[in-house]
Amino acid sequence: MLDNPRSPRVRAVAKLANKAARTDTGHFLLEGPQAVGEALTWRPELVLELYATPTALERHPALADAARRAELDIQFVTEQVLEAMADTVTPQGFVAVCAQFPISVRTIFADQPRLVAVLEEVRDPGNAGTIIRAADAAGVDAVVLTGRTVDLYNPKVVRATTGSLFHVPIAVGADLAAVTDRAREAGLQILAADIKGDDLLDARTAGLLAAPTAWVFGNEAHGLSDADLRLVDRAVAVPIYGSAESMNLATAASVCLYESAFAQRS
């Protein structure tokens, strides 16, 4: 039983909440039974260390079975130790250390995807994680986070994906111009979600959304720059029919991705 919240091991895990430590180690922090369960189910080889309180493991025996299948030892810890390791106030009894696993933009487009989500300068961790989750739900083939977007392995991003980061190929650190070049070479059209764009309904009516597509989503506050928009084939806006002043980025991205998913499957 690990019971000292100030031990070097505990502090090393807690440091993964900081980007510098994640960059140095190539590791990231995973919290809670849902996220840990997804990792053990989909990518067990990425789970390097697993910590749990005895009470939490009793409540989630399936996680003990999954760890056993992955030949992963579970280190029991006290509640105080778990709280010291975690980024959240209530980590729900489980913390894991995982290896980062980005893939290259080249690999993503070499696989001839039909639907890709590209995040350019998305700074809010909750938005980034929610878009990844929505992309997973919509059946996208891959997600790309450009170098100006929040770190994929930020604990808040990881939590917001609710495990979807283990389901979808994700590239990080790319330049938007390089991504759009690769997308075109792979035969994808490039659509940008932008308030200044054409009505999404018009794009649907014209049959535009059925084609292989890379959707580009920009910054929450100012969207995509004019230079960014020159890189895309067409800008499209999600219409607002009610009295709302604007739409949350992650919500708009979800609508766009599902519109393409519907069109491609019809």
Task: Outline the structure in words.
- It is a single chain.
- By secondary structure, the protein is α/β, with parallel strands linked by helices.
- 41% of the residues lie in helices and 21% in strands.
- It contains 13 helices and ten strands.
- The strands form two sheets. A six-stranded parallel β-sheet has the order 7-6-5-9-8-10, with helices on both faces. Strands 1-4-2-3 form a four-stranded mixed β-sheet.
- The mean pLDDT is 96.
How many independent structural domains? Answer: 2
> What's the CATH topology label of the largest domain?
Alpha/beta knot
Question: What is the share of helical residues?
Answer: 40-55%
- Shape type: elongated
Low-confidence stretches: none
Short description:
The chain has 266 residues and is α/β, with parallel strands linked by helices. It has 13 helices and 10 strands.
Give keywords.
266 residues; alpha/beta; 60s Ribosomal Protein L30, Chain: A; Alpha/beta knot; 2 domains; 4-stranded mixed sheet; 13 helices; 10 strands; 41% helix
Topology:
Blueprint: H1 8-14, H2 19-25, E1 27-31, H3 33-42, E2 47-52, H4 54-59, H5 61-69, E3 74-76, H6 79-85, E4 94-99, H7 105-110, E5 115-119, H8 125-137, E6 142-146, H9 155-161, E7 170-174, H10 176-185, E8 189-199, H11 200-205, E9 213-217, H12 226-229, E10 234-237, H13 249-265
Parallel strand pairs: 2-3, 5-6, 5-9, 6-7, 8-9, 8-10
Antiparallel strand pairs: 1-4, 2-4
